[in-house]
Amino acid sequence: MLNWFNNKSYPEFWNNYTSYFKNAQETNLEKVRFVVFDTETTGLDIIKDKVLSIGAVAVTGNTIDVNDSFEAYLKQEKFNSETVEIHGILKEGSIDKIDEKKALILFLNYIKNAILVAHHAAFDIAMINQILKSHNLPKLKNKVLDTGVLYKKTLSSQTINKHYSLDELSDIFKIKKHDRHTASGDAFITAIIMIKIITLLRKKNNLALSNLFYNSSRRGLI
Asked: Which secondary-structure segment (H or E) carries 65?
């Protein structure tokens, strides 16, 4: 009876989202749906700053599915002219923008129970969780991978503490930086990086999904 009451205390879109986690999750690395995503924000303060846009693309079977993608621009209540030089998103303009709650509903419906992937994922996850908190909802339930942490799995112990930016990994893997500093562009670049990292890890051993989450140093985990 208590579980029924708790479920009913949340809006339908949240209950729909959490329903995807009730059954056993896929563990076959070839069949798992990863959603690689990025947020553009008004700044780097997870409490004060706001999400301007969310971009995402799915990866299944080590292949980017461009038909399974997501993009949303949010209406701006907070405006920081200094960060416009980075992301290029104006408060007004020709880009169609939606309110924060609608963007949240669409994003949750898109990701479902996928494993989320981002570069320096803690920040992007925190920004989404802040939106959830502002609507009196719990945090994201999805498992999370960070490409910065994943890349270190391919390296020797001597370089394990180095901090790798998205630009540095793009250069290492010779990836063209098209649409850099747009949410969708950065998500696509991160997806390519993820695939290249997994390819390298497969050359080292018989890779399983659990290996991607294991980190003996416990650094960088969400």
From this structure: strand 63-73
Contact 59, 194 (CB under 8 A): yes
| Residue entry with tokens 């670049």 | 189
Residue 34, classed as helix, strand or coil, is strand
Q: Work out the average pLDDT over 200-210.
A: 89
Q: At 219, is the secondary structure helix, strand, or coil?
A: coil
Q: Is residue 164 within 8 Å of residue 148, measured between CB atoms?
A: yes
Parallel, antiparallel or unpaired: strands 63-73 and 144-146: unpaired
Residue 94 pLDDT exceeds 60: no
Question: In angstroms, rounded to a whole number, what is the distance separating the alpha carbons of residues 219 and 221?
Answer: 6
For domain 30-213, give its CATH number from 3.40.50.700, 3.30.420.10, 3.10.129.10, 3.40.50.620: 3.30.420.10
Residues above pLDDT 90, as percent of the chain: 73
Chain mean pLDDT for the chain: 86
d(CA 122, CA 221): 8
